[in-house]
Amino acid sequence: MPYRYLEEYNIEITQEVRNSYERILGEIGEDTGREGLLKTPERAAKAMLFLTQGYRQDAVEILKGAMFTESYSEMVIIKDIEVYSLCEHHMLPFFGKAHVAYIPDGHIVGLSKIPRVVDVFARRLQVQERLTDDIVECINQTLKPKGVAVVIEAAHMCMMMRGVQKQNSVTTTSGFRGQFEKIETRNEFLKLISSDLS
Ligand SMILES: Nc1nc2c(ncn2[C@@H]2O[C@H](COP(=O)(O)OP(=O)(O)OP(=O)(O)O)[C@@H](O)[C@H]2O)c(=O)[nH]1
Ligand SMILES: [Zn+2]
Question: What is the catalytic activity of this protein (predicted)?
Answer without folding.
Answer: GTP + H2O = 7,8-dihydroneopterin 3'-triphosphate + formate + H(+)
